[in-house]
Write a structure and sequence with these properties.
With 112 residues, the chain is mostly helical. A two-stranded antiparallel ribbon has the order 1-2. It is globular.
């Protein structure tokens, strides 16, 4: 009987994996495009300011966040991704990157 139970458990696991594959791919917390092969984890409140919560972002989005805002600004006013998207420079970037592929990458200039 243990063989039959193991087989049923294996089928249930396989069904769960198939369902997970068919689910919508995770999205970037900043630009809300589907994530590609490379994913970075952005601390919504920087670790230097005591933050622990992270969100998945594209590498280009992560570089843009840190090139645009200092850690103390991120901690004080921009810990929420919706508020971060409302920042004028970030909003301009999000509009520009909206039609790019998931693994799109270019150098990011320091804007501070």
């Amino acid at each position: 009987m243990t063989g039959r139970v193991k087989r049923k458990a294996g089928l249930a696991t396989a069904a769960a994996l198939a369902e997970a594959r068919n689910a919508a791919p995770p999205t970037c917390a900043l630009c809300e495009r589907p994530l590609g092969q490379r994913v970075e984890w952005h601390h919504l409140v920087p670790k230097s300011e005591g933050g622990r919560i992270t969100a998945p972002v594209h590498p280009i989005c992560h570089r843009t966040i840190h090139a645009t805002l200092a850690n103390h600004e991120l901690a004080r006013a921009y810990a929420d991704p919706a508020v971060l998207r409302a920042h004028p420079a970030i909003a301009r970037f999000v509009a520009w990157v909206a039609d790019k592929p998931a693994d799109f990458s270019v150098p990011v200039r320091r804007g501070r």
